Structures are given as structure tokens and as C-alpha cells.
Amino acid sequence: MDRCPLCFGTFQKPKLLPCLDTMCFTRLDEYVLKHARASGTFPCPVWGLELPVPDGGVSKFDDNQHIKVEQTLERALAAPGGHVPCETRMRERPFGVLLKKLLLYIFIYL
Ligand SMILES: [Zn+2]
Ligand SMILES: [Zn+2]
């Protein structure tokens, strides 16, 4: 998995910037406090692209849901005794159950 460009660790509350870089919320918050310009922008810590500071601050940037899901999945798989996420369990269920689910989806969405 990718590492955070600000702390070089795994992401904590990953925030997705408009330039598509991702970094930890707290690190980004500190960074923006230090580097925000009077004009209301700050340079992206990765490539230096000028980005607007959102109204309400860094917390208003989108969460990187993709990384969050990945982390949740990794934690689940790494847990002792292995909690297997429901989606994985689904694959192990008898084919008939999946078929019923599929037919239900078709019924609902078509
Ligand atoms: Zn970080
Ligand atoms: Zn960037």
C-alpha cells in the first residue's frame, strides 16, 4: 500500500486533495497552518500545485474512501482468528445462494 508523503507512515484519516494526492488529516492540517498564503491557497506538499484551503479547513477535503476500505480490509484479514469480511464469505457460500442474490439484483435494478 502507498505511504503518506508527509509522515511516510500508513495513512491516518486519509484526505484526498483536489490534485489527487492523499495524506494524513493531522499532518496535512499542520502543514496547511504553516504554509497557507494570505490569498487562501497552499502549495501541495507533493508537487507544489497551489490548492485552495476549503471553507472550514482541511477537514472539508474529501476522505480517501478507497484507502479507508483497503485499511479496514487489511485489519480484518490480519486480525487473529481472522474475521473474514462478509463479501469474502459470500464467495464461499453455496452457488445457489449467490444465484438467488443475483436474481434479486436483476429483479430490483432492471
Ligand atoms: Zn501521514
Ligand atoms: Zn498534490
UniProtKB/TrEMBL annotation:
InterPro entries xrefs: TRIM45/56/19-like, Znf_RING/FYVE/PHD
Protein name: RING-type domain-containing protein
Source organism of this protein record: Dreissena polymorpha
